[in-house]
What does this fold into?
Amino acid sequence: MRVLVVEDDPELAGLLRDGLREHRIDPTLAASFSVGREQALAGDYDVVILDVRLPGGTGFELCADLRRSGVTVPVLMLTALDAVDDRVRGLAVGADDYLTKPFAFRELVARLQALARRRALALAPERVRLEDLEVDVASRQVRRSGRAINLTAKEFALLELLLRHPGQVIDRSSITAHVWDNNHDPFANVLEVLVRRLRSKIDDGFEPKLIHTIRGAGYRIGPGT
It folds into this structure.
């Protein structure tokens, strides 16, 4: 996940950068209205974090400017202001979520992951094909070599996540956040059981095998080992 952090406080910006990296989130920092605007218009980000108070303008103004410029990336407003009017104003100018300082870092990460998932779902094609595997995202219908495959809700959520990133290794924490909304330990046996069930339905009796375990890293979907 790529996140743009527009925050003028160097200490907080550094804490955000280091904390996000620990959660395998790639942050880009901007310390002013103008730099934040330039980065948001030029970069391909999954979420933008905006502080309300910035040199050269406010986060409210920047969010409104980005929306007028056609930037649709989710925006999370980060501020010390806790008044209802400020939260309403942030949402009115196009922000998707609002978090008040001080905050628990795990809550920030959970909100970022939720916003990124929402965006990915909005951008995802209705039909996905990989080799002889066909998935209709809207109806949740899955077929392989023309044969219908019935999946549970969590099996489908896992398959959908893998298919959004074909050939890429998805780590356990990202899968847990997507399938269980961070309510499970990513290293618990429940994830292995879920992967095993999905693999048996998608791969047993078919070639090539598509779901692969990358030891110590996570899981990948695609042909080859």
About this structure: Helices lie at 10-22, 33-42, 59-68, 84-92, 105-123, 153-164, 172-180, 189-202.
